């Protein structure tokens, strides 16, 4: 068991679990990578993706176990099933990588992202922004007479939808954390 | 007893504890404290090369011919950047190398100091792992870990960057740990269920073939021994990649010769027509597979590899086995024996009749000439005159490399040093120096092309200084032969910049360094010249002037499958076209 109470996944033996064929279908996978918290480890992971031409849709990293010197990197990537398996195997090869988990295939998981959204406007638009924020359960964390900063959490799709709605209402700045994800259950 | 010592002394102590007796290197400002410690001891012998790239290639030659890790010591900045080609070469061919680099003192890092480079940043993609040691406390443990990472699992190069103040400061020395208690522990035992599936497939196969690679050599002598036993017992044909030559003896009756782009006709057609492919320690490199969608279309494929990322990377595998070659072969062999040593005798007999038909094509035949030395003839004579000797062969990269692989026979592992994955011109000469250092009494020959050889010719100084009697057998066609061949095949015979108009007089060059030079251009003199080269007690450059426009066949043109091989010049011009043209 890892310090995060995730059962050791199939990633180390990914070769045994390859899905039926080398299909061309692009899949979106969320990977949780547990790494030694040492200088350069993020560069190793990112360098792997750029060097081998893999996609990164989102990447978050932070220390999760101070005593164990472990950080957790959550990567959302897209690729064919073969490329996804290859990414996992390549990540597993990096010396300071402890564990690689494919949350997309290892049972159910939850994904959340946080965003700060600055919207500027007056009159009706301002009221409408506030009303929509309420529907999306976004909080106002800063307010002036001409602007709001909303804090919204949810799946990346929910944040996309919120940002799309805010755009005509005066969206001027958007900051997103990237995806954090955990497997469901114990 | 905890011992306190300086970082520089720690480096030497840690190398000693790791059983290192040979280091290839080049001093400079940022490693002077370590060089000072080397000066004051007698356990470790340091070989001064003439260029840091050569230090790494020499260490590769040393490592590949002994199975031990090669060790390199160079300075910061240019010392480290010059080592990059060697590191990449070792990474591609899975050679265990430990490179120690000096670095500017910790308090100057990031200030664009003199001879500062971001060494760990630059070498991150070309090492298996690397470390910047910022604290002398961590230095000895890091060096021990570096050796562990370089030599375990799939071997590879590692680098430890040591700032100068860390070399001067003192701390307690940590001795070599008995076991490395870290998460990095590659799996060596193969999954028994998969091994069983392999054995079951072997019992039934009508047209099996063993396809072996450098992983067999890296796994150690036991792996080669087990492979030989398995091949003899089953009677299956066996072919090997460039990197795996010698694991199974070339004189063995099941040997098909090398496969791949310039592999033998029978080997490639056996790969194309087999119904069971048993890949042991090879990685389906593009030089091997040719066109992927037409690669061995009717076969079930088993793949034994210690690196999970090699499996299913380009070719879909039916029976993947992650593990060390020797461990997996031992388990598979034992299981096969205990299940009654079954093979499909009728199927195999028919398969061998088919292979014998392919062999009759005699794909390595060439037209000898009475006036000029054919390069194939030169290599064939080298083989005839050195066979049976305690012989190690290195090569540079190009046509001569392929002819060496085709016409020389390797009876044992660790006898063949060549740059496979990266294709590094300039590899062979320094590698031959590393091999000779490891095997002082052996006959070490570097089969070279003149263009590759010139890339690291400065190492003549090293050979002379340490009295290393390396033989430089240069097949001189005054061309970049392989480039020229591709220009003929792909670019309408427009030979853009693929010849040299200003080659040195190699005999005089040898003499200028204090070595022996031999020139030969007449086929009648060839045997005498080769004998003179191998009998001479000291380094020799043999300038063997060969036919200038000879092409290397057989050849699978880029973008073609195994069964579309070119066997001669007849159809060669503009043979690479369409989609194949963008491939290298």
Automatic annotation (TrEMBL), chain A:
Signal peptide: none annotated. This is Acetolactate synthase small subunit. Dimer of large and small chains. Its EC number is 2.2.1.6. Residues 30-105 form the ACT domain. InterPro entries: Acetalactate_synth_ssu, Acetolactate_synth/TF_NikR_C, Acetolactate_synth_ssu_C, ACT-like_dom_sf, ACT_dom, AHAS_ACT, AHAS_small-like_ACT. PANTHER family: ACETOLACTATE SYNTHASE SMALL SUBUNIT, ACETOLACTATE SYNTHASE SMALL SUBUNIT 1, CHLOROPLASTIC. One of its GO terms (cellular component) is cytosol. The gene is ilvN. One of its GO terms (biological process) is isoleucine biosynthetic process. NCBIfam families: acolac_sm (TIGR00119), PRK11895.1 (NF008864). Gene3D superfamilies: 3.30.70.260, ACT-like. Chain A, domain 2 (3.30.70.1150). Keywords: Amino-acid biosynthesis, Branched-chain amino acid biosynthesis, Transferase. Pathway: Amino-acid biosynthesis; L-isoleucine biosynthesis; L-isoleucine from 2-oxobutanoate: step 1/4; Amino-acid biosynthesis; L-valine biosynthesis; L-valine from pyruvate: step 1/4. It comes from the Bacteria. It comes from Thetidibacter halocola. It catalyses: 2 pyruvate + H(+) = (2S)-2-acetolactate + CO2. GO terms for molecular function: acetolactate synthase activity; acetolactate synthase regulator activity.
Automatic annotation (TrEMBL), chain B:
Residues 5-120 form the Thiamine pyrophosphate enzyme N-terminal TPP-binding domain. Gene3D superfamilies: 3.40.50.970, TPP-binding domain (3.40.50.1220). Its cofactor is Mg(2+); thiamine diphosphate. Its EC number is 2.2.1.6. SUPFAM superfamilies: DHS-like NAD/FAD-binding domain, Thiamin diphosphate-binding fold (THDP-binding). It holds the Pfam family TPP_enzyme_C. GO terms for molecular function: acetolactate synthase activity; flavin adenine dinucleotide binding; magnesium ion binding; thiamine pyrophosphate binding. GO terms for biological process: isoleucine biosynthetic process; L-valine biosynthetic process. Residues 397-544 form the Thiamine pyrophosphate enzyme TPP-binding domain. Residues 195-330 form the Thiamine pyrophosphate enzyme central domain. GO terms for cellular component: acetolactate synthase complex. InterPro entries: Acetolactate_synth_lsu, AHAS_TPP, DHS-like_NAD/FAD-binding_dom, THDP-binding, Thiamin_PyroP_enz_cen_dom, Thiamin_PyroP_enz_TPP-bd_dom, TPP_enz, TPP_enzyme_TPP-bd. Binds 1 Mg(2+) ion per subunit. It catalyses: 2 pyruvate + H(+) = (2S)-2-acetolactate + CO2. It comes from the Bacteria. Pathway: Amino-acid biosynthesis; L-isoleucine biosynthesis; L-isoleucine from 2-oxobutanoate: step 1/4; Amino-acid biosynthesis; L-valine biosynthesis; L-valine from pyruvate: step 1/4. Keywords: Amino-acid biosynthesis, Branched-chain amino acid biosynthesis, Magnesium, Metal-binding, Thiamine pyrophosphate, Transferase. PANTHER family: ACETOLACTATE SYNTHASE CATALYTIC SUBUNIT, MITOCHONDRIAL, THIAMINE PYROPHOSPHATE ENZYMES. Belongs to the TPP enzyme family. This is Acetolactate synthase. The lineage of its organism: Bacteria, Pseudomonadati, Pseudomonadota, Alphaproteobacteria, Rhodobacterales.
